[in-house]
Specification:
The complex is a heterodimer of chains A (142) and B (236). By secondary structure, chain A is an alpha+beta fold. Chain A has helices at residues 4-30, 32-35, 41-46, 131-141; strands spanning 56-62, 68-69, 74-79, 84-89, 102-111, 114-123. Chain B has helices spanning 7-10, 15-39, 53-80, 83-114, 123-144, 148-163, 165-175, 195-235. Classes of the chains: A alpha+beta (142), B mainly alpha (236).
Chain lengths: 142, 236
């Protein structure tokens, strides 16, 4: 069987591992605001004291038929299918930026419904498929 | 096969056996590369940059797997003081290190055309970078601490601390909002990768596993030989 020394080491290691898990959990929990890369429109809506001067990121889907381009700027709506935020942006958008797809906008809130972005990132989801399959799926949905 | 892992048996690993594995590696990787770069279809949004995934995903998996083994072996090592464990983990570390670097670099190459940036500090990318740093720290303790016992203890501690990072990497995309997409292949549901893209991914995965195995066996043999030599020297 296990010797006394080995048992002591197991006990010591188990104890330190358990305490480490608790400590790490506590750290991550308290840092949650920094760990989260972006907020959804609902989270912004629900947040009581949100800063309008600090840079934040808003993420969600680009609402269908919401992209409006004019000469200098582009406006669109980010939705999480519950709440929406209007985003205004000047500059180049990534190639994959399109309606119905994921997006993360970095910038400042004017108010809880209006966001001025200075950087747009497109987010890709976990679905991978050839174009023909996508077309077939769309056909079936319509 | 498994018995060969023990220090005295690994020395019987000849070049012929390695060459058989290398031949197998070349065959699988050739099939995998032709399939993933030429035969498999483009993605409906990403276009051709989806092909980066066939290298990126297996590398990340191996990087995580190697550290998982290092962590568990480090626990056994500290409790039962088995020298074999430290030789095993020592040989695995460079493999995991290089694959975590490959994962980060290929991920960057994919991120630029897809997201629009090379790098962001979201939870998945940051925790992966931390894993890479853990590998570096682990390797450096063996490089710079000459005393075997001391290096063994410190590197085992690094291995155990780094073990906590693994679930954070794996579940970061589920726990928090990240720019990185969540897993396409999970144990519980059907893969969200189309079959024509899943097959080359699996072939590439096996190719990289075999590559890691070859490097591991060669490195492990060297480590065992080095260990035996240093023991002889100490007796004199």
């Amino acid at each position: 069987m296990l010797s006394k020394k080995v048992k002591a080491r197991i006990f010591f290691l188990a104890l330190s591992i358990i305490s480490a898990v608790i400590i790490i959990f506590a750290i991550l929990k308290s840092l949650e605001e920094n760990v989260v890369y972006f907020l959804s429109p609902t989270e912004i809506y629900n947040k009581a004291n949100i800063s309008f001067n600090k840079k934040i990121r808003v993420g969600g889907l680009v609402k269908m038929n919401s992209i409006k381009k004019n000469e200098t700027s582009i406006n669109f709506i980010i939705t999480d299918l519950k709440k929406e935020i209007i985003v205004s942006y000047r500059g180049l958008v990534p190639n994959l930026f399109s309606e119905g797809k994921g997006v993360v906008a970095e910038g400042k809130l004017k108010d809880k419904k209006y966001f001025v972005a200075d950087k747009i990132l497109s987010k890709h989801d976990e679905n991978y498929m050839p174009p023909e399959v996508n077309r077939a799926l769309k056909k079936n949905n319509n | 096969m498994f018995k060969k892992i023990f220090p005295n048996k690994i020395l019987s690993l000849t070049n012929t056996k390695i060459n058989i594995l290398v031949a197998l590696l070349i065959i699988i990787v050739t099939i995998g590369l032709v399939y993933s770069l030429l035969i498999s279809p483009r993605d409906y949004i990403q276009g051709d940059s989806v092909r980066i995934m066939y290298v990126h995903v297996p590398s990340s998996f191996i990087a995580l797997g190697c550290f998982g083994f290092i962590g568990v072996a480090s626990i056994c090592n500290l409790i039962f003081k088995i020298k074999l464990m430290s030789l095993l983990t020592k040989s695995l570390a460079p493999i995991g290190c290089i694959f975590s670097l490959i994962s980060i670099v290929t991920g960057s190459f994919w991120g630029k055309p897809t997201w629009g940036v090379w790098w962001v500090w979201d939870a998945r990318l940051t925790s992966m970078a931390i894993l890479f740093l853990f590998y570096i720290a682990y390797i450096l303790t063996w490089k710079f601490i000459d005393n075997f016992e001391k290096a063994n203890k410190i590197s085992s501690l690094i291995g155990i601390i780094g073990l906590f990072n693994l679930p954070v990497i794996k579940y970061s995309v589920d726990w928090w909002n990240t720019l990185h997409q969540s897993s396409s292949i999970t144990l519980t549901s059907a893969p969200k990768i189309h079959f024509s893209m899943l097959v080359p991914l699996i072939i590439m995965f096996f190719g990289m596993i075999i590559y890691s195995l070859i490097i591991f066996l060669m490195k492990y043999k060297t480590e065992v030989m080095k260990f035996k030599l240093s023991k002889k020297k100490n007796y004199k």
